[in-house]
Amino acid sequence: MIKKEIHEFFFLSKGGQFVWIGLLLGLFLVAFIRTAWVSDDAYITFRVVDNFADGLGLVWNPGERVQVYTHPLWLFLLIPIGLIGFDPYWGSLFLSFAFLVGTLLLLIRMGWASGAGGILTAFLLLASKSFVDYSSSGLENPLLHFLVVLYLLIFLWDKGEGIFFIGVIAGLIFLTRPDALLLILPGFAFQLYRERRDRGFLKLSILPFFFIILVWVLFSIFYYGVPVPNTALAKAGNGFDLPLSIRQGWGGIQWLWRNDPFSLVLVVAAVALGGGSKDARCRIVALSILLWVLYYLYVGGDFMGGRFFSVLVVAGVVILVRELRGGASIKFMLLPLFMASTAVQASVFSPPNYNNAFIDSNGVADERGFYYTFTGGLPNYFIRDRRKEHIWYRLGERFYPLHQKVFVGCTIGLWGYAAGKEAYTIDPFALSDPFLSRLPASRSSRVGHYERALPAGYLESRLFGSNRLENPHLAELMRLVLTVTQGDLWSVERLKSIVRLNIIGPSLVAQSGYNPDLVWLPGKSIEAKGAFSCAGVSSAVWLWRIDQDGGELKATALVDLL
């Protein structure tokens, strides 16, 4: 009798649910505090935030309009933080935790519809290294988790009251990460088909969706000259054939199996359960997860182990919650809770000196393990500005006074942020370079680090501010790029160049005979070519200052000047 009353209190009564929710949120708070970190790529966005706050616009290099960020909405949330002078490092972590709490409350609330499912929901997420690692990182993942769960809540449970928000949320997901539309478009199309005779629904859902997308795409074309982020050109436009991309993507899945098997098993189980569901909506969500995996393989995966899969873990948990509604019991959950216990300990009790700076043979790495020692929340709380002790940050800060200089850097995040707004950076990985991003990458590039060779005359063009490329086709491409990214916003010539760049840009590259494997730096011999080199140098400190010495260009490694 007593056991029955205890069970009813903790798993059925509202009072018991509040106790569990408090405990679960407390566990996540501990896990977040012990694992929160910021990636090198996040500092690319942070520099844009600082430049905007200083009145330079949404740019990386001053005077050059290039979209170096993939997540407009995440950037817009960080901009007010920058405008009030608050450190975007801590601002990104506070925002991340806020969206984490929002995601958890939505998921736990869904879980209680399955009896004790709220507990299972929380433990599944805590056991996922991918979810825990990318509940921070300074990137858009926490915001994407929240919006996808909100969308799925309406799609799977809504009875019509929240139909207006479905288009708005879909549009916001596009602004958070454009390719994330793959996760919701099947469901959106299904909803439109089901309600095709309801003109009110069509207006309330389609109009906000297309309005948000149209406004941003038009702004992007006008301001940046292209409808997609420069980062998409640099990575998805690397020129690799499909078999090579699939091999790289498969390497990311193999990494997940070795380092975060729980997440992979959870996603597979959710797809199997959802795909066999009697509920057509669950089958569509399962299909969306599969589309995302196929897209991951198509673009060649990513070097950040687990980053692309964190949102799949969230969607998978939603499927499990939906399918277990009304049927979950504490006995049913004992096995998954036991299986998850070891992985949960790894997040809740993650050490403050967590370090796993290892890149596997496929080029994939545990990015939190790579940076946590310097950019982790705990190290920076107890050791003031620990992130500034990283070699890349120290080099950028050391050479901050060298304004109006041109630098070549293959790791531009921490260094570029610390170097300040006046440092002009050439990025062979092309994330911030609107010209190089249009060229094919070396086939030996590491996944996510698609290196471009510097064409003859390119460094001179950047150093002296004029088009000095020797190849006539590349010179024409450079002329268009300079006009679009640096010309007067409202000039007729610039508007014409935008059209020409997007139409004939690929053909100019094809006609140029450009060889992406001819990597070089002035005055330097080629030491290495491969996945773990840049500009012919194998050292991990890929930062050089470019100067003119007696009429000849010279590259000087910044680390040699310390």
Automatic annotation (TrEMBL):
<feature type="transmembrane region" description="Helical">
    <location>
        <begin position="97"/>
        <end position="127"/>
    </location>
</feature>
<protein>
    <submittedName>
        <fullName>Arabinofuranosyltransferase</fullName>
    </submittedName>
</protein>
<keyword id="KW-0808">Transferase</keyword>
<keyword id="KW-1133">Transmembrane helix</keyword>
<feature type="transmembrane region" description="Helical">
    <location>
        <begin position="280"/>
        <end position="298"/>
    </location>
</feature>
<keyword id="KW-0812">Transmembrane</keyword>
<feature type="transmembrane region" description="Helical">
    <location>
        <begin position="139"/>
        <end position="157"/>
    </location>
</feature>
<feature type="transmembrane region" description="Helical">
    <location>
        <begin position="18"/>
        <end position="37"/>
    </location>
</feature>
<feature type="transmembrane region" description="Helical">
    <location>
        <begin position="255"/>
        <end position="273"/>
    </location>
</feature>
<keyword id="KW-0472">Membrane</keyword>
<feature type="transmembrane region" description="Helical">
    <location>
        <begin position="206"/>
        <end position="226"/>
    </location>
</feature>
<feature type="transmembrane region" description="Helical">
    <location>
        <begin position="73"/>
        <end position="91"/>
    </location>
</feature>
<dbReference type="GO" id="GO:0016740">
    <property type="term" value="F:transferase activity"/>
</dbReference>
<feature type="transmembrane region" description="Helical">
    <location>
        <begin position="163"/>
        <end position="185"/>
    </location>
</feature>
